[in-house]
Amino acid sequence: MTHEARELAHRALLYALLLACAALTLLPYVWMLSSSFKENIEIFSARIDLIPDHPILDNYVAAIDKHPVIRAILNSVIMAGVETLAVVVTSVFTAYPFARLRFPGRDVLFLLILGTMMIPSQVTMIPAFILIKWLGWIDSYQGLIVPRIMTPLGIFLMRQFLLTLPRELEEAARIDGCSTPYLIWRIVVPLLAPGLAATAILTFIFSWNEFTVALNLTAKQTATIPVAIAKFAQGYEIKYGEMAATAALSLVPALVFLLFGQRYIVKGLTTGAVK
After folding, report:
1. In Å, how far are 52, 173, 189, 199, 209 from 152, measured between CA atoms?
2. pLDDT tens digits for range 29-81
3. Residue 46 contacts by C-beta under 8 Å, 6 or more apart in sequence?
4. Long-range contacts of 224-228, Cβ-Cβ distance < 8 Å, separation of 24 or more
């Protein structure tokens, strides 16, 4: 076998493996979308049909009319949107001193911030709940958003991006009399567009999928879409078709947000890996 034939065979094998992995990843979503157009009895039939024989829209109508799905999606959009904006702003201003300034204990403090990423959220759940209850923020947007307006992942990504920027631009701006806040806003932030996009996308996805915190801190007014989906499992009869329809509707905002900036995720995560 020639070298070209071996290379072609390896490439074909690689593509086949990638297609198999993609199929396994997408299968649950295809099954969910298919179930949203079926009745309960058809979902649990012995036949495995990804394409319904008699598709119906009753599940979507019932999910919107009988359950507060639209309100839950709106709550998730508000929570994820405000939290994303806050995390992006705080990450830039927190990461800048770690990337540009020299002060005693800088590296140790940065390692401590990164170390908080290894602490499970369940460890701080009860103290956070007690504090939020003491502030009177139960079932409110501030109770969901304020405790998470700063994340170590956002600080890490912003610092890695700042390390790739040439210092000469900032030095030239300082010579022209530019102050530090103006320097960050007009010089640094425009150059950090890929990092800002990557941080925003990751924060939005994590916030959109947050379940445990939202379950403990929300009620009817601010219940998010993961909480609304979980409530379908309550009671004696579970409407799996309506649950699947609600889950399908919940994917729309996240997919739109992801499609507009998916290329920035890989760039943001790989920044700093290669000098």
Report:
1. 45, 29, 19, 11, 18
2. 888 888 888 888 888 776 777 788 788 888 888 888 888 888 899 999 999 99
3. none
4. 224/72, 224/75, 224/76, 224/79, 224/144, 225/69, 225/72, 225/73, 225/75, 225/76, 225/250, 226/76, 226/250, 227/72, 228/67, 228/68, 228/69, 228/72
Q: Are 249 and 239 in contact (CB under 8 A)?
A: no
DSSP 188: I
Residues 6+ away with beta carbon under 8 Å from 210? 224, 226
Query: Model pTM?
Result: 0.81
User: What residue type is 159 in one-letter code?
Assistant: R
CA-wise closest residue to 273 among 193, 196, 161, 167: 161
Domain segments of the chain as ranges = 60-270
**CATH hierarchy code of domain 60-270:** 1.10.3720.10
66-75, 125-134, 181-190: which has the minimum mean pLDDT?
A: 181-190
